[in-house]
Specification:
The chain is of the alpha/beta class. The protein contains 12 helices and 9 strands. It has a 9-stranded parallel β-sheet with strand order 5-4-3-2-1-9-8-7-6. The longest helix has 13 residues. About 2% of the residues have low confidence.
């Protein structure tokens, strides 16, 4: 059984939703992101998304774009991101780690080579935001061979055709994009989330659904937890880390967000 499946099973038994926390590898501590990962895990996060910095992101808002550029300027590369995953595992981190980024770095690395290296480092899954399901078969074969789940995004604008394509490929969880546009912090949770999550569950049964984009406060997490299997918080964490450089502040924030996942 994969770490992700075990995680969602345990959360179901405790009647909790997953807190999924995103950070950009290498920002603000190049070479020591494993310390950030460990802090987030120790503070109660259930799943960690580790962003692979890339110069031409697809859906990242200004906060995450800026963090990626800082990381790239500091010399962060896909191999160094995998080094951080390995170091986090060596430090005792057991929660699922999902690598999130664009298709281009994976393609440049080599599909089979990246899948093997990611699995060897201790990653559990990937979210490749610009890999469409109709072009994902070769990657799905390579990643599945290494025990990696492939997580796809479904948005309010996703068609029935896209959901039909995702259904046989989806693993780990579905990343439900709560609103059209780019990532960032918002004052409230987008309307229609409950209907969107229900539509995804109807069309892609048996796969957990986690909601992201615009989720930044405990009250947002609490609202999402009532209708979905997990809530993804990214921009707030990335911005706070950039501003404070404090792992103690990070731990307090993650703990407050996790407390809101109890149903």
């Amino acid at each position: 059984m994969s770490r992700l499946q075990s995680c969602f099973d345990a959360l179901h038994d405790r009647n909790e939703a997953a807190l999924v926390v995103f950070v950009t590898a290498g920002d603000p501590f190049p070479g020591e992101t494993w310390k950030v990962i460990k802090t987030i895990a120790d503070a109660g996060a259930d799943i960690i998304e580790l962003g692979i910095p890339f110069s031409d992101p697809l859906a990242d808002g200004p906060v995450i774009q800026a963090s990626s550029m800082r990381a790239l300027e500091a010399g962060v590369t896909p191999p160094s991101v995998l080094d951080d995953v390995r170091a986090a595992r060596d430090a005792g981190v057991e929660v699922p780690i999902v690598l999130m980024g664009s298709w281009n770095p994976v393609m440049q690395f080599g599909m089979a080579e990246f899948a093997a290296a990611a699995a060897s480092a201790g990653a559990d899954a990937t979210i490749l935001t610009d890999l469409s399901p109709d072009e994902a078969e070769e990657w799905k074969v390579a990643s599945t061979a290494e025990g990696l789940d492939t997580i796809f995004l479904i948005a309010p604008t996703s068609t029935q055709v896209r959901m039909d394509m995702v259904r046989p490929l989806a693993g780990g969880f579905i990343y439900c994009v709560s609103r059209t546009g780019i990532t960032g912090m918002h004052d409230n949770v987008s309307n229609g989330i409950a209907d969107l999550v229900e539509n995804i569950r109807t069309n892609i049964p048996g796969v957990p659904v986690c909601v992201g984009f615009g989720i930044s406060q405990p009250e947002h997490v609490r609202a999402v937890a009532q209708v979905a299997d997990g809530a993804v918080v990214g921009s707030r964490i990335v911005q706070q880390l950039h501003e404070t450089k404090s792992l103690d502040v990070l731990a307090e924030t993650v703990a407050s967000l996790k407390a809101a996942t109890k149903r």
